[in-house]
Amino acid sequence: MMNEYDEGRIWFKKKGAVITVGLTEKALEEIGTVQGIQLPAEGDEFTQDDVVVEIEGAKVNFEVISPADGGVVSVNEGLNDDLESLQGDPLDEGWLFKLRGAAGADGEESGDEEEV
What we know:
By secondary structure, the chain is mainly β. It has a single domain (3-102), classed as CATH 2.40.50.100. Helices cover 10% and strands 39% of the residues. It has helices at residues 25-31, 84-88; strands at 3-5, 10-15, 18-23, 34-38, 45-46, 51-57, 61-65, 70-75, 97-101. The chain has a six-stranded antiparallel β-sheet with strand order 1-2-3-9-8-5. The chain has a three-stranded antiparallel β-sheet with strand order 4-6-7. A hairpin with a 3-residue loop joins strand 6 (51-57) and strand 7. The protein is globular, with a radius of gyration of 14 Å. The two termini are 13 Å apart. The model is unreliable at 104-116 (pLDDT under 50).
């Protein structure tokens, strides 16, 4: 199941304690042609509403904020070389980063927890 936040511009999917985050079509329409992207590094820690990704667009620059407290466990490095996948397939190949929610940071699996 996919959820949206930031007025429907950002989507996230939660599987266990890991949250995958990406842009919606609505955000891409606002941004225009993506000209550059600044992704986080694996291991970076964020709190909810921190800016995690910065995107330079033809129309506007856009900031992706974190849906929860946690640490980055994976980054879609392919976007550095292929911004087309972000615009061509934003709900699958165009994911931005994966965050392990703070609830799972203490070593316990929190697969039953659905709060974000």
